[in-house]
Amino acid sequence: MRTQIAAANWKMNLTFQQGEKLLDDILAAEIKLKDHQKTIFAVPYPYLTMTRSEVAEEKNYYAASQNCYHKKSGAYTGEVSVEMLHSLNINYCVVGHSERREYFLETNVILADKVNLCLESFIAPIFCCGEALAIREAGTQNEFVTKQLEESLFHLTAEQIKGIVIAYEPIWAIGTGKTATTAQAQEMHAHLRSVIASKYGEAIANQVPILYGGSVKANNAKELFSCPDVDGGLVGGASLVAADFIEIIRSLK
Ligand code: PEP
Questions:
Q1: What is the pLDDT of residue 2?
Q2: Ligand 1: which of 128, 235, 239, 251 to mutate, judged by most atoms within 8 Å of the beta carbon?
Q3: What is the CATH number of the domain that holds 227?
Q4: DSSP string for 112-137
Q5: Atom 7, ligand 1: which residue's CA is nearest?
Q6: What is the pTM of this model?
Q7: How many domains does the chain have?
Q8: Residue 253 burial (CB count, 10 A)
């Protein structure tokens, strides 16, 4: 079975103490993940070490960064490099979340640089893609996400693409309470997998986890995750409430 992932994206929420308590509460549920299941907490930079320590003894639980800078090192005041994340033993990094694309003007080309740096440091990128409402309404969402993959990922070798996690996050569903239907999610995930297959072959495409993100909640996770090409979720709002995220982890295939 392909790897199934429940990934929390805390964004710029919670104090350190609140974050620590949230992790304690989630881990207190003692959900034993199967070999093919993972839970990942993408937390603010100052909480990475704490989160990594919290999950250190837990099988298949990981800390992730929500971002990294697209240059190796140097005079970039306030930025955090991939090498720094690697030195903290961080295994995952969210790359290209729509909020970064929108508010920080991150382009597909910049994101390709981030992906490269992550892979050089053995950090798996959780690469986000997804269309805005206007694109969905125009019916060009497939072409739009295909371009995002082509411009940020398709320079990678087959070996490298196997180390990527993709998160399909329709922008119109993020933080809006409006979730894609299971049909919409499955259709897009199957499309993404076919795009990867056309470049790298089916065997490799079948190994790449594709997460759904966009108002995943405790009460819809099971249905979304039951789609054959949906391999879990990237979860914002509902990952901030212990009981909800516990339910979401339990909804993994
Ligand atoms: C996200 O943060 O990537 C996200 C999908 O947020 P939400 O679950 O709140 O829609």
A1: 97
A2: 235
A3: 3.20.20.70
A4: HHHHHHHHHTT-EEEEEE---HHHHH
A5: 236
A6: 0.97
A7: 1
A8: 16
